[in-house]
Specification:
51% helix, elongated, 6-stranded mixed β-sheet, 274 residues, alpha/beta
């Protein structure tokens, strides 16, 4: 994505259309669009040709961007789990790992970054009916690996609003749910985690369209990305008008939900009832 944004900026500065850029590397306009959005891998020759087209002749600048292209093509750690993942999900894991701020609203279940292993196993088992125990184990292992980034030194800021429905809908037995609620109480004390609960009692709210995640990155060149998971695919939105609407919805959810301290009290109350 970082390389793609650089290439887009260079192309626009020269007033070159995507169609013309595509022609120069024997590709289509849509291929240039996907490259600039970071959705496809980069061939070194294509990047070299584009840099020449964009008038980048300084050797140091060319080498820096070509080095970035080589780094962009290195497979992430999560690719070893690709056999048990839907083909659209590795993209999300890569974006999540690059984000400096993750904001999310969940209504169906606890967000994957906050799930205990037992709760994750219950969720994955429900979603992968007919899968072998080994495949379920690998999917759960991936989820636990993703959490290590959140808990690591220098991990991202994670702001999440959980609908009360996600906490009252049981996955696993009573002990699994109790363990999950206790885990939420504990992890919400971390300095980089802001957890809020949207209670039933509030009524209708700005999360009416369902769960979503907003990913923000440390590089100023990169726009925020909205992730929307669907039954058989996912959407990645980065147009300014889309991002603005989801950011507004997120702000309203945060404003309308009890704060982190009050939300911990809600979690403790649910734990006592479970």
């Amino acid at each position: 994505m970082l390389l793609g944004s650089h290439l887009r900026r260079l192309r626009e500065a020269r007033g070159i259309t995507r169609e013309a850029a595509g022609y120069s590397i024997r590709a289509s306009e849509s291929k240039i669009s996907r490259m600039e959005l970071g959705r496809v891998s980069f061939k070194t020759r294509d990047v070299e040709d584009l840099l020449t087209l964009y008038g980048i002749n300084d050797e140091a600048e060319r080498n820096a961007l070509l080095s970035l292209a080589r780094e962009a093509n290195v497979a992430g750690w999560w690719h070893s789990y690709s056999d048990v993942l839907p083909n659209w999900f590795p993209t999300y894991v890569g974006l999540e790992g690059a984000a400096s701020l993750i904001r999310a609203y969940e209504v169906q279940f606890v967000h994957g970054l906050l799930q205990t292993e037992a709760y994750a196993r219950a969720v994955v088992g429900r979603g992968m009916k007919g899968a072998s125990p080994a495949d379920i184990d690998r999917r759960v292992a991936l989820r636990m690996e993703r959490q290590k980034y959140l808990l690591s030194t220098g991990g991202p800021e994670f702001h999440v609003v959980l609908d009360e429905a996600a906490l009252r809908r049981p996955y696993g037995d009573r002990e699994v749910m109790r363990g999950q609620l206790q885990h939420l109480i504990e992890i919400s004390e971390r300095s980089n985690v802001r957890l809020q609960i949207m209670p039933f009692g509030f009524g209708g709210h700005s999360g009416e369209s369902g769960a979503f995640t907003i990913l923000s990155f440390p590089e100023s060149d990169l726009s925020d990305v909205i992730f929307l998971e669907q039954l058989t695919s996912a959407l990645y939105l980065d147009k300014a008008e889309d991002v603005t609407q989801y950011e507004t919805a997120m702000k309203e959810l945060q404003q309308d939900s009890p704060g982190p301290d009050e939300s911990r009290d809600l979690l403790r109350g649910l734990l006592q009832l479970s």
